Amino acid sequence: MMLEAANTYFRKAIAAIERVMETQAAALDQAAQWIADSINADGVLHIFGAGHSHMLCEQISWRAGGLAPVNAILDINYTLLGGGSPMRGTKLERLEGYAKILLDSYDLRPTEVLIVVSQSGINPGPIEAAMEAKSKGLKVVAITSLEQSSKAKSRHSNGKRLFEIADLVIDNCVPPGDACVEIGPGVPKTSPLSTVVGAAILQAMVAEVAKRLFQEGTAPPIWLSANVPGGDERAAQLAARFGGTRLKPF
């Protein structure tokens, strides 16, 4: 069995991650330091993503090997889990004002960091999330495709794209349209890259933040798997200290 298409995908995913390693080191370095500094000051790392990008928020939230002070800003209506037409989430991501209401329900504090994940970086949802966080004094880190976004027109009325708003941009080095495997003439490409590459970027960032906290004399608040000895006890300790979603009180 040759698995030609499958192996093509593997090679393209590896190549994209290698491009990130080669070209985004400075941005990753700065992001990791901002996050480490914030955690050392009792801050929380926030992360936002609409559509399939919401999976990357879950990637570093309440997960074995992950950092405890992470607040995933999730909205079920931005996802297929919201039910109804699959287009509903797409329409809401393009609706101005929705993300502002969502972020306004969270306790976002100056000097904390918000990561905004968006492949295209042109929809009002992630753009407004970045704008709202900046207005509250947070540092905004965008994970996006610069190649795709720089060639596209913003759908927000201010005309700006995510990379033009964020304080720091990490280019995921994923091509426009996300999909990467050519099946044949006249057939759309298949198999998107942004989830695989985005997850790699985020987990690399988590590792770097944990290392810097340790080197600076802070015990990294890292979750253990609930399925290994001591996992439940560790979870209880960290949840008591960092648990909750940072929702504003009524």
Secondary-structure arrangement, i.e. CATH architecture: 3-Layer(aba) Sandwich
Unreliable stretches (pLDDT < 50, length at least 5) are: none
Helical amount: 40-55%
* Spatial extent as radius of gyration: 18 Å
Into how many domains do the coordinates divide?
1
The top level CATH class name: Alpha Beta
Assembly type of the chains comes to: single chain
Which homologous superfamily in CATH is the superfamily?
A: Glucose-6-phosphate isomerase like protein, domain 1
Biggest sheet: strand arrangement: 2-1-3-4-5
For the report, how would you describe the main beta sheet? 5 strands, parallel
What is the molecular shape? globular
Search tags:
250 residues; alpha/beta; Rossmann fold; five-stranded parallel β-sheet; two-stranded antiparallel sheet; 10 helices; 44% helix; globular
Task: Summarize, please.
β6 and β7 (190-192) form a beta hairpin.
Topology:
Elements: H1 4-23, H2 25-40, E1 45-49, H3 54-59, E2 70-73, H4 87-93, H5 98-104, E3 113-117, H6 124-135, E4 139-144, H7 146-150, H8 162-165, E5 168-171, E6 179-181, E7 190-192, H9 194-215, H10 231-242
Parallel strand pairs: 1-2, 1-3, 3-4, 4-5
Antiparallel strand pairs: 6-7
Helix pairs in contact: 1-9, 2-9, 5-6
